[in-house]
């Protein structure tokens, strides 16, 4: 074998080794790319789930805030109605002598029953 033939053999052998190396790096790179793509999909799903949960929590907080505001408004309305009723009764009975007279027992019983009804939770009243 001449030196030219040896050079060609070494060149072909070197080219083969280089091609094998490049091919192996290509396969490794493709494998890494596939793994990175899977990781990205998992992270995207996790982010989407977290955003969905956060959105649900925000909606829940808004609902509770609306309920709290409605309850506050209802308490104010009740208080105003109570004050107006007191003022109306006071004005109507200011010049009347009914405050000095005894309340009939049947009327007192009816007032107690109405008071129990008004204070009963959920508006449920059990007649005693």
TrEMBL record:
It comes from the Bacteria. This is DUF2570 domain-containing protein. It comes from Salmonella enterica I. The lineage of its organism: Bacteria, Pseudomonadati, Pseudomonadota, Gammaproteobacteria, Enterobacterales.
């Amino acid at each position: 074998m001449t030196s030219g033939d040896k050079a060609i053999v070494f060149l072909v052998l070197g080219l083969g080794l280089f091609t094998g190396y490049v091919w192996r790096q290509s396969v490794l790179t493709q494998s890494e790319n596939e793994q990175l793509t899977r990781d990205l999909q998992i992270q995207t799903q996790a982010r989407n789930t977290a955003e969905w949960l956060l959105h649900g929590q925000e909606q829940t907080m808004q609902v509770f805030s609306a309920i709290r505001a409605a309850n506050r408004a209802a308490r104010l309305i009740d208080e105003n109605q109570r004050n107006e009723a007191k003022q109306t009764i006071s004005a109507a009975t200011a010049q009347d002598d009914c405050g000095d007279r005894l309340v009939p027992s049947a009327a007192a019983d009816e007032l107690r029953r109405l008071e129990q009804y008004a204070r009963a939770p959920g508006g449920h009243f059990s007649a005693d």
